[in-house]
Amino acid sequence: MVKAEISPGTTPAPTPGARILVVGGGYVGMYTALRLQRKLKNGEAEIVVVSPDPYMTYQPFLPEAAAGNISPRHVVVPLRRVLEKCTIIIGEATAIDHAQRTATLKTLASEEEGTGTVEITYDELVLAPGSVSRTLPVPGLAEHGIGFKTVEEAIGLRNHVIEQMDIASSTRDPAIRDAALTFVFVGGGYAGVEALAELEDMARYASRYYHNIKADDLKWILVEATGRILPEVGAEMGVYAVRELRARNIDVRLDTRLVSCEDRIAVLSDGARFPTRTVVWTAGVKPHPILAASDLPLDARGRLRCTAKLSVDGVEHAWSAGDAAAVPDLTADEPGKECAPNAQHALRQAGVLAANILASLRGEPLQDYRHAYAGSVASLGLHKGVAHVYGRKLKGFPAWLMHRVYHLSRVPTFNRKARVLAEWTLSGLFKREIVSLGSLEHPRAEFELAAGGERPKDT
Question: Model pTM?
Answer without folding.
Answer: 0.87
